[in-house]
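Hello again, I could really use a second opinion on something today. I owe you a coffee for this, so here goes:
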Amino acid sequence: MKETLIETGKSLAEALIIVAMILLVAYAATGTWHIGFAVESGSMTPHMQIGDLIFVLAPNRMNITTFGEGETRDYNSFEKYGDVIIYRPNGLYSATPIIHRAMYWVEVGEKMPGGKPAPHAGYITKGDNNSGYDQLSLDVDTVNGWVLVEPVKPEWVVAVAKVRVPYLGYPSLILKDTTQKIKGFVNKYRG
């Protein structure tokens, strides 16, 4: 019995060391602990599908290229000009990160889509399958209610999309959906 426990402990320690090594290598390669994101909506079709896993690089590992710059330099990412970024809308950690293309950069006071002046400098973003820019058509839930997404400050960019693996994001989406259903059930019957 004692020998079995010792062997089990050794096996568990080996497994933990292997997992830690994989995570450290992934961090060294990407520059971020967020090595992948599951696509949750169809806003980036046909270049990304619901359930795809998107592997990423840290934004500080590269210069983000907007659609306009990509067009000038003939730089493509996911079959269109410019980089696809993953960002926290309005910098909110409570909001689900959004995976959309960086279309162009605005300085504070410059006109944004819709004609309003930009409250600060940042990227104007858009899903490849969306008809409008995020800053004109995408709302985010805040403590003050729903507000439009602002230009994306560089510090709000979590990562830059690099590789798409079809279907590998479904386990994450299923787990998230199940967790939300459990939370809803608990809150409903909490009283």
The first strand starts at residue 36 and ends at 38.
